[in-house]
Amino acid sequence: MLKIFTQHRYLLWQFTKRQIEQRHKGSLLGMLWNVLHPLIMMAIYTVVFGLIFKGSYQGVENQSTLDYALGIFLSLTIFQMLADVIVVSPMTILGQPNLVKKVVFPLEILPLANVAMSLYQFGIGLVITLIGVCTIGQGLSIHSILFLVAIIPVIPLAIGIAFLLSSLGVFLRDLQHLAPSLSLILMYSSAVFYSVKMIPDSIWIFVKYNPLLHIVEQARGTLLWHQPLDLKSVSYSLSFGLVILGIGLLSFKKLKSEFADII
Amino acid sequence: MLDTKIPKGPENEVVVSASGLKKAYRVWKDPSGRLKAPLFDAFGRLIPKALRPKSLKKRLSHKGTSPYYTDYYALKGIDLEIKRGDTVGIIGRNGSGKSTLLQILAGTLTPTEGTIKVKGRIAALLELGSGFNPEFSGRENVYLNASVLGLKRQQIDSKMEDILAFADIGDFIDQPVKTYSSGMNMRLAFAVIAHVDADVLIVDEALAVGDVFFVQKCMRFIRKFQQTGTLIIVTHDTGAVQSLCKEAIWLHQGEFKGKGSAKKMTELYLETTYASKQGAKLFEPRSNTRLPQAPKSQNEKITQADQRSDHINSGNLRNDMKVFKFDPDSPSFGEKGATIEDVLLLDSKTNDNLIYCVGGENVTLEVKVTAICDLSSPIVGFQFKNNYGQIVFGDNTYITHSDNPAKCMAGGQFVASFQFQMPYLPPGDYVITVAVANGTQEDHENHHWLHDALSIKVEHSHVCHGLVGIPMQNIEIRNL
Q1: pTM of whole model > 0.95?
Q2: What residues in B contact A26, CB-CB < 8 Å?
Q3: What is the ipTM of this complex?
Q4: At residue B202, what are phi and psi to the nearest 5 degrees?
């Protein structure tokens, strides 16, 4: 994978750029959708879970509806980063038969470009969140810098999932149908609309293994509510991410040579 | 025109070597087997070796076939050694494993068994343009394609102009490739391949497409590439193999059948192909039967017309040739001490300019030249080439004028004319290359060489074998 970064930077850059362009090509608002889509999602969830279900993040004092909305926005941004990768990856290799069969192409670029595109969306989301924190939220503090540590585990997790699902997707075409459900399960089990403290013990014993839950909770705590970083939960999600990364790279490397036979 | 620098290495160095190449394609009896077989194997492996029943051992060794699938071997053990500078043709019938072998050489398929080593940069023309991304512009695709082949950005930048000139697709280069015609797509792909300084070039039967001028351009490139690079061609067009290759490898149903001179291998290949079709070996010499004696020619006068000419010319096999107008802008080179002004094909009897001519007719090829500097002994020549750039025939004025050179002062004009009987030609696209030089046959200076001065399209023909048909003076079957 390191070879890709040293030798094929240009290709990776081109593929990422093109994917971003393609996503909104021909639409009137173009790149603006990158901002609009998460805002619309946030509005819907805030109305449903905040105003109708009267939801709030427990353990946070003086919480306004705006704070809740900001919390949802940040959590969704992090979740969306993984969800994009999960939904797109099973089709990544399958969708490029020419690059697999007709030319000798460094196929690792394809899943990496997916991750890079999600990272780009992620970056936009974070910028909006930061603007929100400074204007309508509770401002920045020393803990806000630790926020950067809290979200680091997302990156190995995303790359690992991209490699794993894109290589398995070639052999198990059912994955592309399973992926949307997987991402939905992930959304509701990742403490996007609620805080970890609200989870009953009977459910906690299952969802506590979800690394995204820890990432989301830590990111929200540090950036929005100025809470200290829980190193234990960060190191759990980071090691989980690294293991997934390892499995993903291994699976891609093992299966790569058979892609051309199957597609 | 083609400024491709091909890296030179030591001669006779083996650049492509393969041993025991096997490729199996797994044919599943039932889609669910795809899931069951690996699961079965995985659980089977959990049982300690000593406790495994015999049938399980057999299945896990992957030697026999599993109840879920059978392995179809497209290649059954191929050994290969190709040296630098060689041109090798791979021939065989459909399904003989040619394309699989090429894909393995190119690196897009991995062999099931065996090893392959390739030294240097390998570029493959497997279905031209298929490696392009349709959403990207032509220029971006050039960068993508070339960087996949290992070129640095600066290297591509420096070659960009040559690539664009070769592809000759104008402003379309900045449009997405999905808007290209198939011809443009192919030209761009070939242009990239021609400029990446490959050590080994693999060509699949892709070359037969494209317009006549582009095919000629590709052929010129390939012939130039052959001088220094290693070329591997796969086709069942035995003519192309004989014309381009010294050596050929013959595959049959995934097995290596033989290797030898291109001529010998193609002959052997054709012989067995026809034999298997007709169920008998052709051309078996039979010493005990006497062949009918050919009638001795009664007089010395050469009859030029084909015995069947009336019959042929009245039917749909008439050898019509469409003659296109002289193209002064066709690719050219030379010292420009003289320029070719016009090239015409005339009817020998009436001296009318021909738009159509018919094989077997007498025609005159006229080449009008303007001298720009003094020419002491000009030579004008032409070559009549087919789709593959093979010279079907050609001639020049040297012998006729060797004793009394047709001197021409600067500014003067002259016409060279060649009167000949147009041979019967198989259907296809042809071009006439015309050149003017000064000097002798052995030592001359080219002043103007026009690659595709005239082009000719032959639509129908009674010729089914060979490069040209010659007038048959008599054909008959006699009862003995």
Answers
A1: no
A2: none
A3: 0.70
A4: -110, 125
Which residues are within 8 A (CB) of A127 and not within 5 positions of it... i.e. 6 or more apart? none
Instruction: Tell how strand B122-125 and strand B255-261 pair up.
Output: unpaired
- Give B119-167 pLDDT, tens digit per residue: 888 887 776 666 787 878 888 888 888 888 878 888 889 999 989 988 8
**Distance, in angstroms, between A176 CA and closest chain B CA?**
16
Q: Chain B: give the shortest CA distance to residue A134, in Å.
A: 40
Please tell me the distance from the alpha carbon of residue A245 to that of residue B96, in angstroms, as a whole number.
42
Contact yes or no for A14 and B148 at CB 8 A = no
- Reported as a single tens digit per residue, the pLDDT across B172-229 is 899 888 888 888 888 888 888 888 888 888 887 656 566 778 878 888 888 888 888 8
B148 close contact with A: CB closer than 8 A? yes
Q: What is the pLDDT of residues A66-75, one digit of tens each?
A: 888 889 999 9
* CB contact B153 to A (< 8 Å): yes
Chain B residues lying within 8 Å of A106, measured CB to CB: 148
* B95 in reach of chain A (CB within 8 A): no
Residue A10: its chain B contacts at CB < 8 A?
Answer: 143, 147, 153
Q: Are B245 and B390 in contact (CB under 8 A)?
A: no
Name which of B108, B135, B143 is nearest A104 (Cβ-Cβ).
B108
> Distance, in angstroms, between B82 CA and closest chain A CA?
21
Cβ neighbours for B78, distance < 8 A, ≥ 6 positions apart: B18, B20, B21, B22, B97, B101, B114, B251, B254, B255, B256
Q: What is the pLDDT of residue B417?
A: 92
